[in-house]
Each structure stands twice: as C-alpha cells, then as structure tokens.
Amino acid sequence: MWNREEFEEPARITTRVERQLAVSHWLLSASREVEGARAEWAEIGLTVLRCGTLFGAVRVPAEIIHAAAGSHQDDAVNAYLARALHGGPVLVDTHQERYYALVPPGTMHHWNTPDTECLGRGSYLGVPRPDLDGHSGQVGRSYWSVPMDSPGELCTPGSVTQLVAHGRYRRQTAQAEEEVEP
Q1: Beta-sheet pairing, 124-128 with 46-50
Q2: Is residue 146, in this structure, part of any structural domain at all?
Q3: 4 located within any domain
C-alpha cells in the first residue's frame, strides 16, 4: 500500500537572505519611487518610506526604552525589545535617540500613549535597509534593533503600550530614588 506522506515535499527552509529580500520588496512598496528608494538603500543604507499604508510607526524616546530594558547597552536593549514586542520590528535612530516600533497602519487613529507619537497616513519615516541590524557590523545612524522577520509582521499596539508604560514607570522610579538620595 502506498503512503501519501512518502511523496509529499519536505518542508522548505527559508534562508535569512531570502527573508530579507521578501521584507525589502514589501517595505519598498511603501515608496512613491521604488527604484529611487532601492538606490538610496544601496548607496546610504536608508530611504524614506510612507507610513499609513503598509505600516505605522510609534516613536519612543530612547530614555524610555533604556529604562524599560534596564540597560543602555545595544545588545541588551535589542534582546529586551525582541522579547517584549514578541519579535515585532523596531528600528532605532541613534542620532535623534529614538526608537520606532512598526505597527499596523490604522494604529494612529486610537493611539494615546503619553511620551510617544504614532506616525500614520501623511507621515514619512527613514527606514534602514533590512540587513542593517545590530549584528551586521554596518550600523550607521539608523539600524534595525529588532529586524523584520517576514513581510507584514508588525508589533501589536498593545505590546508597545505595555513596553512604554513599563519604561515610564521605571524612569519615574529611578528619578524619585535620585531625589531621595543625599
């Protein structure tokens, strides 16, 4: 008797390069001029993409992220964000000291978390090339703190809200302790 399972194709393993290519194509579809955006990624590692169609972005000050993570060390912060946001994509602008959690595009319509701003339709965001992360050795002004693992995989607004609340609490607690110390 023939066993159907013997003839089914084995599970396909997707390489990191293949995932990055898929993510690149998905992100570039948020550009008004795909070839120009692709060229900017190739030349400077950063391009500006429209928010509000494929994704929104919650801008969070680094001070809150560092307080939540209990660290200023990039590796520790990146690992913390990956856990806290369940692998949802986050990029960091080291010059402006801000983190951007990518969220579903309609998030801005109901976002009201203090000390943050949600970018949606009508906003633009500088997005690093998908292979520029904390482990690439090519980190510039902006890089992926938590790389996007696959197209359309975003942070949940609730997890970003919890992260910010935790960071604000830890920041306030640290400030109160500093005021008490002689």
Answers
A1: antiparallel
A2: yes
A3: no
Q: What is the distance between the alpha carbons of residues 148 and 161, in angstroms, rounded to a whole number?
A: 19
Domain total in the chain: 1
Give pLDDT tens digits along the chain (182 positions): 555 555 566 566 667 788 889 999 999 999 999 999 999 999 999 999 999 999 999 999 999 999 999 999 999 999 999 999 999 999 999 999 999 999 999 999 999 999 999 999 999 999 999 999 876 555 568 999 999 999 999 999 999 999 999 999 999 998 888 777 66
Q: Provide the 10 A C-beta neighbour count for residue 27.
A: 23
C-alpha 45 chain-centroid distance: 16
User: How open is the CA angle 65-68-51, to the nearest 5 degrees?
Assistant: 35
Length of the chain: 182
Indicate yes or no: pTM above 0.70: yes
Cβ atoms of 85 and 155 within 8 Å: the answer is: yes
Q: Report if residue 27 sits inside a domain.
A: yes
The residue among 87, 75, 91 whose CA lies nearest residue 27 is 91
Q: Is residue 52 part of a domain?
A: yes
The H-or-E segment that residue 38 falls in is helix 34-44
* Domain interval for residue 30: 15-180
